[in-house]
Amino acid sequence: MLAASFLFALMFALPKIADAGLNGFQATFVRYVAGLITIAPIAIWVSRQGSPLATSVWPLIIVRACAGVGGVTCIIYATTHMVYADALAISFIDGAFIMVLAALILREKISVQRWLAALSCIIGAFLVAQPSTDLLGTIWIEPAAKIAFLGAFIMAGEVICIKHLTHRVSAPALLLYTNGCAVLMASVPAIALFDWPPLHNLTLYMLMGPIAILGQFLFMRSLRCDDVSALVPYKYSIILFGGLLGIQIFSEWPKLLSLFGAIIIVSASVFLSRFEIRQIK
What we know:
mainly alpha
């Protein structure tokens, strides 16, 4: 999960490095197309080695793909129609939604320690995002804030879908089908926006594809090996890696409050890790 989070943070940094002027829909479309190009030959090779691509869980795969595109679309809409830090802070609520859905749908027994670690990470994420002081009022009045909440819930649902699918479909097949479905769904809004830069300016955007495929593979492996609720705190490490990349690549140093939030996230993850190890022993 930590390695996957680092790759996702790197993937999200690439559009800013490229600075080619793509909007969110176009960047998402390019990322899925590049991902499909990356995974297709791998999936074909794996199938020839005896791992079949056939599956009977198409409805769940389509739901997963819809959730992936829908969640990203909601967050993009929210970040462009309200204060960015507020939208980002609301999106961090997905960890709480994941915990609730894991208990209700996956029937996971969530310990008090897991709840405390997850809630601590959410608080730490809020401190990193540093939303406005009137965030609660914004949530009550601003329609975009409600869209951000919807996006967080959809993304949590996507994680639950992935958990189900990891035990029913091989990773290459799942990545092939979900990226293919996502390309079809993202193509209409992306192509309808005709302001596309020259092809050579899309190189860094295309790198998002293979990086995302490797990140998704590791993400699925982590979900297959442990409970979703046990992995939620580690999922928030993407914030820490994003901050480190911001310092290294963009010379963007975090504020003191952001550092305090990062310390909370690390502390909560270490606490949960030590607790889980003791439970295993």
